[in-house]
Amino acid sequence: MRPAALSFPYTLAELEELLDASPQLRLLSAKQQEVRNKESIWHDVSVSAGFNPIRTADKFTDQIRAGLAVSMPLDILLFRDTARVSREVESLEMEKLRGDLKRELRRLWFDRERRLLEMRQMEAELELARLQAQKASVMLVS
């Protein structure tokens, strides 16, 4: 048997963990988080406060004018449910992608295991054929 075939450095569970930690999936997750942040109700909301002394034409008074302004795009309030549904769809797509990758990984893993078994069987058959040839040559000599 070839030792390289038996010394695979990972188990199936370790490969699945590596799959979850892959840069591509982390990038997709980060992009989804960025979209969620942009769709957040507080992303485009701005609050400003101002304090100005009231001036008249010829003198300062001790009164202060305080102002508070809030601005928010109207579409955040109107289309909030649409954004939530799109986030859910993106999340489901990500879960489907992970599931597909894990299924493919398991398929490849079990295909590898099957091929290893076939190789062991062929090596055993080769050894049996060598023994039979050796037996035949011993019988010919005797």
Describe the overall structure.
It is a single chain. This protein has 142 residues and is of the alpha+beta class. It has a domain at 11-41 and 75-141. Helix content is 68%, strand content 15%. The chain is built from 5 helices and 2 strands. It has a two-stranded antiparallel sheet. A hairpin with a 4-residue loop joins strand 1 (46-55) and strand 2 (60-71).
Uncertain stretches = none
Backbone structural class? alpha+beta
The span between the termini is: 32 Å
Compute the average pLDDT. Answer: 76
Strand line-up across the major sheet: 1-2
The largest sheet, given as strand count, sense and whether it forms a barrel, is: 2 strands, antiparallel
How many strand units? 2
Strand content: 15-25%
Q: Work out the radius of gyration.
A: 35 Å
As a percent range, the share of helical residues equals 55-70%
Tally of helical runs? 5
Order of helices and strands: HHHEEHH
Q: What sort of overall outline do the alpha carbons produce when their principal axes are compared? A: rod-shaped
Summarize the structure.
The protein is α+β, with helices and mostly antiparallel strands. 68% of the residues lie in helices and 15% in strands. It has a domain at 11-41 and 75-141.
Features:
142 residues; alpha+beta; two-stranded antiparallel sheet; 5 helices; 2 strands; 68% helix; 15% strand
